Amino acid sequence: MLRGLACALALLGSPVQAGLEDAEVSILSFDELEGWDQDDHQAALGVFLDTCRDLDDPQWRPICALAAEQDDGKTFFELFFRPVLIRDGNDPLFTAYYEPEIRGSRTESLRYRYPVYRTPPEVKAGHVWLSRRNIEDEEALSGRGLEIAWVEDPVELQFLQIQGSGRIRLAEGGTIRLGYGGSNGHSFMSLGNELVRQGVYEPHQVSQKVIQNWVKRNPDEGRELLLKNPSYVFFREIGKVSADKGPLGAMNRSITAHRSVAIDPKYTPLGAPVWLEKKGAEPFNRLMIAQDTGSRVKGAQRADIFWGTGARAGRLAGKIRDAGRMVVLLPIQRAFAILPEE
Fold first, then answer.
1. Each residue's pLDDT tens digit, 94-111
2. Which of the pair, 209 or 8, is modelled with greater confidence?
3. What CA–CA distances, in Å, run from 259 to 42, 117, 271, 274, 307?
4. What is the CA radius of gyration of the chain?
5. Measuring CA to CA, which residue among 198, 210, 197, 178 is closest to residue 100?
6. Which residues contact 229 (CB under 8 A, 6 or more apart)?
7. Which residues pair with 101 in a beta bridge?
8. Alpha helices in 119-265 (DSSP H)
9. Scanning 73, 211, 225, 336, which has the fewest C-beta atoms within 10 Å of its C-beta?
10. Largest distance between two CA atoms of the chain
11. Tens of pLDDT, residues 216-253
12. pLDDT for residue 12 is more than 70
């Protein structure tokens, strides 16, 4: 019965995915995926189900309906998907991100004096607004009641903005869960790269902790360094996500450490399974789910792996900058539809 449905799905019409006109696309066999047989496909299937119900598409709906009934993840993926290698001419790059957890308070004080802002109503997606210097140095948002909380460390706040979500552990007890609320539309500038450019550090020496300590030792230069990044991210308070769940991704569902990945939706559909062959110091081959996006994740072979919550996850995520290969698993009919016509 399942094979019959697979054949029927393969015969459905499918539009060519927009944005792939200049990409190199090829369909692989599962035997060509390095380490495919050794992965925990059932774990990947569980993560796939977290967002599958949100894929309101005639190509995905029957697959998602069947996914909930499967007890053999490997057979399920092999039966209903085809591995598709998409390349755009750029070198593969796999990095990692995490959910920061920093100290703060609902009340401003001498210790907690750096505000975490919700999105001002005049900020519109896709439009450039005030720079970080305008917001922080000129206090453009002060007195408008947009503060969600205050935190004690400006470097931690900027890294919270870089990650786009996080938790604030309150001095008065409890935790605030934050999700991405918007940005001022300015391009991001790396603090670490700026310190390297100034000759303060070598590239291999830079980390969040190193930047944090340098800013504390050099308060005037440190403040100027933080203001050099014009990009500014606003947040929204999230109250319905269990503490044991990951932050919300681009599909507004919790993401899972080591199984969720941020991708460029121009090349990889949100919600699709992706096979990641990561090289580097700690290589792995793993089936992951494309559940998030990021402003710095651009390209067919570019992915950002969610590494978890807290300082340890942050330290480990900061070390990952590896080559490898990413293969998208697409429903059979979509996989063949995006092949170039010859």
1. 999 999 999 999 999 999
2. 209
3. 11, 30, 12, 10, 9
4. 22
5. 178
6. 132, 158, 188, 189, 190, 191, 194
7. 167
8. 132, 154-163, 191-197, 208-217, 219-228
9. 336
10. 70
11. 999 999 999 999 999 999 999 998 777 778 898 889 89
12. no
